[in-house]
Amino acid sequence: MTTVQLRIGRPATLSGQGQRRAEGRAGGLLALPAAIYFGVFWLLPFLSAAYLSFTRYDLAGMPEWVGLDNYRKMAEDPGFWNSAQVTLVYTAGSVIPSIVLALAIAVPLARPGRLNGVLRGLMMIPAVMPLVATSVVWRIIYADGGPANAVLGVAGFGPVSWLTDDGIALWALVIMVTWKHLGLFVIILTAGLQGLPPSVYEAAALDGAGPVRAFFSITLPLLRRTLLFVLVIAVVGSMQAFIPAFLLTGGGPAGATEVLPYYMWSNAFGFERMGYASAMAMVLLAVLVVLSLVQFRFLRGGGDD
């Protein structure tokens, strides 16, 4: 009986191994398109940019190896530091108000109701608009005789040179980007709020906690993961901003809106310093990776559960 059982058991084991190998091959084939896409459109450009960052390349001849010269030049370049400062101000000025406003809007919109559902749909309209089209619309809004100055005139204020005043131009971009991304953040935060357990709020109400205390003691701690997710995508998106500065101000006036991606583009294609622009791209990538890791470290420290 023992021999018969062994003979019966071995084919089943071999069959199981064969099935696992077949499933592995099928999984590999299914993942192949994604792997090809990743290799061609992400890994290859990244490796090319990393190599070019150590070269002098003007788009005409062959890249000339210069080692760390581009990085040393970057450390002494006032234009780079100006663009880095503009990028930090632009990021802080757009990310913080966007998240605060999105949370303030999401709290009432998370409640059940047909009207709230309609409002959530309307909030997504700016988010789904192409950024180029959004920039063109806001260029019209910011024109000397445009709606923005018309509203100021009704309020009794004089016209503002939104895109040509070096003290206002960057904030004009911040207003546009905040309006553009606010709806997406509202939808994400609304989904997070709707997933919070009602029993916690019921217990807090029985203990005498009011709406304000419940918001700071329950809602914010439980919403930590969602808030940090929104923070990550907002910071990464803001530090990669290019189209608003390119279409609305061209980096001006006097470099007031010359964010780092625009400065990289102008060096790469305006002055044909592709190697130097690649070095800046590597620095920007390193900063984004570090910021993302720091934020995800905090993300692992708390939860919605």
UniProtKB/TrEMBL annotation:
Statement: the UniProt record of this protein carries the keyword Thylakoid: no
Residue ranges crossing the lipid bilayer per the database entry: 29-54, 88-110, 122-142, 168-189, 227-254, 274-294
SUPFAM superfamilies from the UniProt entry: MetI-like (SSF161098)
Matches recorded under CDD domains: TM_PBP2
Pfam families xrefs: BPD_transp_1
A GO cellular component annotation in the UniProt record: plasma membrane
Domain ABC transmembrane type-1 positions: 84-295
UniProt subcellular location: Cell membrane
InterPro entries reported for this sequence: ABC_transporter_permease, MetI-like, MetI-like_sf
Membrane topology category: Multi-pass membrane protein
Predominant location: membrane
GO terms classed as biological process: transmembrane transport
Keywords: Cell membrane, Membrane, Transmembrane, Transmembrane helix, Transport
Keyword Membrane attributed: yes
Record family assignment: Belongs to the binding-protein-dependent transport system permease family.
Annotated PANTHER family: ABC TRANSPORTER PERMEASE PROTEIN (PTHR30193), INNER MEMBRANE ABC TRANSPORTER PERMEASE PROTEIN YCJO (PTHR30193:SF37)
Name assigned to this protein: Sugar ABC transporter permease
Organism annotation: Nonomuraea longispora
